Amino acid sequence: MGNGSVTHRPVLDKNTDSRAFRDFYYLKEELTDFCRKNGLPVSGGKIELTDRIAHFLDTGEVLSAKKVKRKAASVSHIRISEDMKIETDFICSEQHRAFFKAHIGNSFSFSVAFQKWLKDNSGKTYKDAIAAYYQILEDKKKGKTKIDKQFEYNTYIRDFFADNQGKSLEDAVRCWNYKKQLQGHNRYERSDLAAIKKKGSGSSGT
């Protein structure tokens, strides 16, 4: 069928092209279901599952989940100090939690926004991390954080595909952009499909 890119979300099976797989949105349940059927580990978050499946589609090789666990264990006996640099593959451990509680107080928790900051800022110090934690709290008081917006987007895309199997990510994003221009909430509704119909028809259509 030529070299054109895939425009419809393919059914996820062992013959799916890994690039097409990465181009489309799949629910976590679909990813774990694929892993179960093909003997891949089902542990880990969505990013880890996606990488594991893409590797399997490319090579046919099953990546074990044990490698990740070993990394987590190796950090656990390092003494954390304010001047120490944040590790490249940061993993929230009990030792990290104890360190932050000692410096921030018992109200400390690993929020999604703070975990993202830690993963995006390896090489900075734990002193920087403490300052970033307070900044994130401050931003949250002022209103929506970037994480909130990302969560809204992810939820919208997930709900779009639950209602429109076979449509492309481009269609989903077009509907999302249309939705943001409307007053009110940013949750998916079937009426948002007007954004796609508008593009496809010059005259009125049903």
TrEMBL record:
- List, for all copies, the residue spans of the domain called SAP: 23-57
Highest taxon above the source species = Bacteria
Q: Output this protein's name.
A: SAP domain-containing protein
Tell me what organism the protein belongs to. Answer: Blautia pseudococcoides
Species lineage:
Bacteria, Bacillati, Bacillota, Clostridia, Lachnospirales
